[in-house]
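Researcher: Here's a chain I'd like modeled. Treat it as a single chain, no partners, no ligands.
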Amino acid sequence: MYIKQGGGKIKRSLLLSVLLLFSVAMIFSTNFSSAASVNQTATTVKHNTTTTHKVTSSNNEGLTAAQIKDGYQRAQKFYNTNYRLPNYISYGTKKVPIATFQKILATQNLKIKLYAGNNRPVYITSDNINNPSIDNARVNSIVKGLNALGIRAKALGLGPNTHITALTANIPKNALIVDIYGGADAGLVYEMATSWYKSLKGSKKVFTVYWPTSKCITGLNYLVRAHDDNYSPSSFKGLAHPDQFLKKNGYDYIYSGVIANIVSSIATQSKS
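Model: Modeled as a single isolated chain. Structure tokens:
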């Protein structure tokens, strides 16, 4: 009986030992599983954080390469038209500030071409002097010469009334308008002094180029009314000292048939 009872104690001890070992094994197993799970979670979080950082830095405000190129072309066109940078580049309802967009352009090796200096932007008109081909070539040569100097210049067209349409065109308020004439018109010179003309001109500046087909007004005592002047009052017969009249009213001019000289004079006018 004693042995039997002792055998029961041994069995119970063995059973308790097995259970104890099983419990310890379960604890180790649980801890190991928990540690593995935490490590895995930590790895996943680290991976996600890295991925998010890359998306933010490499996608440039979420814009694709095609969208950046499109925005670049629109920004350059805006600058070429208005001679200033836009405040922002829009993509639907999204607006990217121009300073931010310029940094984005740098990641694509793109840069908006800006003209040098603080010169006034130049807009050139021309009367019908020879023929459209020659007249346009003359204007384009002047534009090219000014651009080579880093001065913004653009042709506004040919025709007898372009000098007026230029005043009302959608161009910068500080623009320099250059009017090229093949003849000296007393009525037109007088018109430039009227309050009506000056009101249209506003803060813009006007510079006159007389091509050598024109009469030279420098030192001229009297400029008679043009034969095709159908807009001046019938009482208007002409203008005394037209060169002095222009300067008195704040206008400068040049009489020349040399493109280089004309470009140089316009460049000087654009700085003031």
